[in-house]
Amino acid sequence: MRKKKEITVKRQPELIEIKPGLRLRTPKKEEWRLAHPWYQNEKVMYLSEGVKNKTYNLSQIYNMYEYLSTRGELYFIEVFEHNRWLAIGDVTLWEENLPIAIGVEAYWGQGIGKAVINCLLKRAKELGMTKISVPAIYHYNKASLRLFESCGFKKISENETEKSYEKMIK
Q1: Sign (positive/negative) of CA torsion 126, 127, 128, 134?
Q2: Nearest 5°: phi and psi at 165?
Q3: 3-state SS assignment for residue 33
Q4: Which of 85, 113, 121, 138 is 20 to 30 A from residue 99's alpha carbon, by CA?
Q5: Contact 58, 120 (CB under 8 A)
Q6: pTM, whole model, 2 decimals?
Q7: Beta carbons of 47 and 138 less than 8 angstroms apart
Q8: Is 54 helix (H, G, I), strand (E, B) or coil?
Q9: Distance separating alpha carbons of residues 107 and 24, to the nearest angstrom
Q10: Alpha-carbon distance 133 to 156, whole Å?
Q11: Phi, psi (5° rounding) for residue 134?
């Protein structure tokens, strides 16, 4: 009788250290409220959701996180500052999307997004993913376009408002 091949399911780690002072942490559901200030920032909303003069209330944030956490690995991006870890954004590793938001503007342009994406590409390989898609980045979101291109994502399509990318995992 042939022995069945065991399937190993890799559980989402609670913490992933990216480098000293920067990590990913799986938030508990009761902590999701910490994201509220990020999604009250109209610039964050415009860059990530493509809407002006709109913000998310707590219910919308919980709905978004519920959706993302059931499709992939949801993490808070945290920095170590003033002797404590501070959540500054979120990211979800999922084959069909890799949404990332640095919700605290003071941390924009510091290379945090690139470090996070490169870390999650390694995690994707550990999980056996072969490809990650990024279905929509708005043309005006130059920082995100540069970020994904600098991490090796290739443009696969484009329309009048957005570009789509993907990266093969080797």
Answers
A1: negative
A2: -130, 160
A3: helix
A4: 85
A5: no
A6: 0.92
A7: yes
A8: coil
A9: 15
A10: 9
A11: -125, 100
